[in-house]
């Protein structure tokens, strides 16, 4: 008799790009999935595919994480079914390209709610259970932008990813000595729908430095499972991350202004 998977990963933004790749890696390694995204039909199709291919149990929750009570609804649904989450992957995020003064109020609120508020709330809801059960791992998806002093024409997006990096660094320190760990994944620009939807695809940064999502997520998964707290995949990305934090930071800001055109 085939042994059924006993661990479960909850992954937000599960239907495309980084989220979908993480779903495949967890499924391949015999971890059950709770998949969160807005598009129910797409969630159902992907969950059926992964169940058929890897024999894992899949559950879908079609929900817009920008809604104020969405994280609580997810947590309550998990509690109602008596499930335990072993891996929380806070992947869902959005970015918009353009001058801040021309930004739409709704776009800014959506970005803040999804990139920061939902991530914080989900972590706060599931972390106590992980500590109580004596194991768990949180994987927060930030960006190479997190290491930069700012992103002209992507001001709020860069700030939101810097927030995720700072939050994860503090959480790593707080959890030291426990059996719960956390990782922040900081990918460089990737060939996904994100760049098209957000308006980044025509910038120099994405034209010249876009990488392969499968390779970067494979690196992130492998290193996160080994307990690494920060993952920046690829030599070029590591150089860009290092240069963003290296003083004087106004030089990096000027470089970012050039790249984001």
Helix content: 40-55%
User: Roughly what is the average pLDDT, rounded to an integer?
Assistant: 89
Number of helices: 10
How many independent structural domains?
Answer: 1
How would you portray this structure in words?
The protein is α/β, with parallel strands linked by helices. The chain has a single domain (8-259), classed as NAD(P)-binding Rossmann-like Domain (Rossmann fold). The chain is 52% helix and 13% strand. It is built from ten helices and seven strands. It has helices at 17-28, 40-54, 70-80, 105-133, 155-175, 193-198, 204-209, 213-225, 235-245, 249-259; strands at 8-12, 32-37, 58-62, 87-90, 136-141, 180-185, 230-231. Strands 3-2-1-4-5-6-7 form a seven-stranded parallel beta sheet, with helices on both faces. Strand 5 (136-141), helix 5 and strand 6 (180-185) form a beta-alpha-beta unit. Helix 1 packs across helix 8 (213-225), helix 3 packs parallel to helix 4 (105-133) and helix 4 (105-133) runs parallel beside helix 5 (155-175). The longest helix has 29 residues, at 105-133. The model has no long low-confidence stretch (mean pLDDT 89).
Topology (elements, then pairings):
Elements: E1 8-12, H1 17-28, E2 32-37, H2 40-54, E3 58-62, H3 70-80, E4 87-90, H4 105-133, E5 136-141, H5 155-175, E6 180-185, H6 193-198, H7 204-209, H8 213-225, E7 230-231, H9 235-245, H10 249-259
Parallel strand pairs: 1-2, 1-4, 2-3, 4-5, 5-6, 6-7
Helix pairs in contact: 1-2, 1-8, 3-4, 4-5
């Amino acid at each position: 008799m085939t042994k059924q998977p006993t661990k479960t990963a909850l992954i937000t933004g599960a239907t495309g790009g980084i989220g979908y790749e993480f779903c495949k890696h967890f499924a391949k390694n015999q971890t059950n999935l709770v998949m969160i995204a807005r598009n129910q039909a797409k969630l159902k199709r992907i969950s059926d595919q992964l169940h058929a291919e890897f024999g894992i149990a899949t559950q879908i929750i079609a929900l817009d994480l920008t809604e104020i009570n969405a994280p609580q609804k997810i947590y309550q649904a998990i509690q109602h079914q008596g499930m335990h989450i072993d891996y929380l992957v806070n992947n869902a995020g959005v970015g918009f390209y353009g001058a801040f003064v021309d930004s739409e109020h709704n776009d800014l609120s959506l970005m803040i709610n999804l990139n920061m508020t939902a991530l914080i709330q989900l972590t706060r809801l599931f972390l106590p259970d992980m500590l109580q059960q004596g194991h768990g791992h949180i994987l927060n998806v930030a960006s190479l932008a997190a290491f930069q002093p700012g992103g002209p024409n992507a001001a709020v997006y860069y700030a939101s990813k810097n927030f995720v990096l700072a939050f994860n660094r503090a959480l790593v320190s707080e959890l030291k000595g426990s059996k719960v760990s956390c990782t922040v994944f900081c990918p460089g620009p990737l060939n996904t729908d994100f760049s098209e939807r957000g308006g980044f695809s025509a910038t120099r940064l994405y034209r010249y430095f876009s990488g392969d999502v499968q390779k970067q997520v494979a690196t992130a998964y492998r290193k996160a499972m080994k307990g690494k707290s920060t993952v920046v995949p690829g030599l070029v990305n590591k150089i860009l991350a290092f240069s963003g934090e290296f003083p004087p930071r106004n030089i990096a800001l000027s470089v970012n202004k050039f790249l984001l055109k």
